[in-house]
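Q: Here's a chain of 456 amino acids. Please give me its 3D structure as C-alpha cells.
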Amino acid sequence: MSDRTRISRTTQEQETILRNHILNRLEQMTIPQQKYSVLAFCRLIHHPKPISLSDFKEMVRRQSKISASRYRRRHGLPPFFYQDLVSFYHMITDQDITDTSMSLFQEPYILSHVSSFLPYDPSIRQLSRTTYHFMTPDNILRNTPELSFDSQNITQSQFRYLIEKLPLMQSLRVLNLTNAKLRDYPNECRAFLQLLHESTRFLPHLRELYLGNNELELVGIQLPPQLRVLDLSHNIVSKDFERLCVHSISQMSHLRVLDLSYNLLHDRDCEILSEQFPHLPSLQSLNISSNFISSGHRAIALRIHHLRSLTELRCNRTQMTRRCVNELCQQIRAHHCPQLQVLELARCDIGNSSFRSILSIRKELSHLRVLNLSKNRITEIDSFLRILPRFRYMTHCDLSENRIQTFSVPLFIRGIEQIPGLIEIRISRNPLSLPIYNQVAHYYMNMDNDILLIHY
C-alpha cells in the first residue's frame, strides 16, 4: 500500500507517516543550510499569523526573491531566506502535506530534533525579535555576541524565555532592549533586574547594555561593573539614584558612554553623580539632557576635570544659569580640555553673556565638531562669526530658534568657507530681518550644495 493511500485514510495515520518522514529527512541532512531552512519554516509556523500550506506553495512558486519579500511584508510574516523555503519545500513535498498536518511542527520533540541538528553558525552575529524565540538552540545562544530588540515590542513569552536563557549567553557582549516596552510586564521586569544584579558570574563579556525608553523604575538595581556603554535614558532612576551611583556606576572604571537623559533627575542627583567622576577615568560621553536640573550643573562643572577622556557633553533642556556656564568654562580653561568634540546646550536659557563665556574658551574647544546652542536667548552672533574659522574641525553648528535678528553676512560667508569639513549650519526659526534673509538665501542658491548645507 502506497504512502499516499495510507495518508488519505485517517488524520492520525497521516500525521504518523509525516512525522517519521520529517525525522528521517532530518537524519539525512548534511548541509547546514538545509537545517536552517527547517528552522526558517518552523519560525513561520510559530508566527502569530501562521502561514498556510497554500500560501507556502504560492510563495515557493514565485520565482523572484523581491516578489517573495513583498508577499512577506503584505502578510506580516517574519523575515526568511527565500532559498531556504524553496529547499525545504522540495525536501518534503513528495508527501501529501495538508494544512492540518502542518501543526506537527509545533510538537516539542520535532522542535528539539530540529534544534539538535542545527550547528553553530559563526555568521550569525545578532539575534533580534524576528530571529530569537523559544526554539533558538542553546549552542547558538552560547555563541551569539549581540541580542537586540531595539524599537521592537518584546512579547511576554519572549521576555520570560530571555530571563530563562540569559545565563547561557556566555559570549554576549551587547544587550539592546531599547524601547522594548518592558514596563508592560512588571513581574518579569523585577526578575530581569535581579538577574542583571547577578550577571557578573555568567555574562563576563557583557560590554554594552541598552535599557532606554522603557519607563522602568530602577530601584535597588546593581549593574555589572565591566560595562563600556550604559543607556538608561527615558526611565525613572531618580528614586534610588544614590544607590545606583555608589554601588554600580562608581565601579565601572572602563565605562565610556553614560546616558541618563529623561530620567527625572534633580540637582541633588547631579551632585551625587559628580562625586563619582574620579572613578570614571575612561568616560567619553555624558548625557544628562531633559532632567529637572538648574543649580546641579555647578557640581558637574566643578568636577568635570576628573573626566580626562570626555569628548561629548550633552546637557540639553536643562536650566543652566549664567554662573554655571561661567564655572564650566573656567574649569575647561583651567584643566585644558582640547579633546571635547561635542557640546550640546540646547534649550538651556543661554543668553549673550553666557554665549560670550563659551566663545572665550575657543582655544580649548579647538577640536569641537558639534556645537548645539539652539532654542536659547542668543541675539548677537557676530563675535562668533569672527572666530568661526578657528573651529577648523567643526561639522555641525545649530543656532536655530534663538532671537537673532541681524548679523554680518560677509563674516558669515567668510567663516563657513574657511571650514573645509563643515556640513551643516542651522540658523532657522530666528526673527531675521528681510535684507539678511535675502542675502543668505541668495548665497545659498549660488553655493555648492555638495559641500555645505545651510538651513535658514
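Q: Can you summarize the key feature?
A: The first strand starts at residue 146 and ends at 148.
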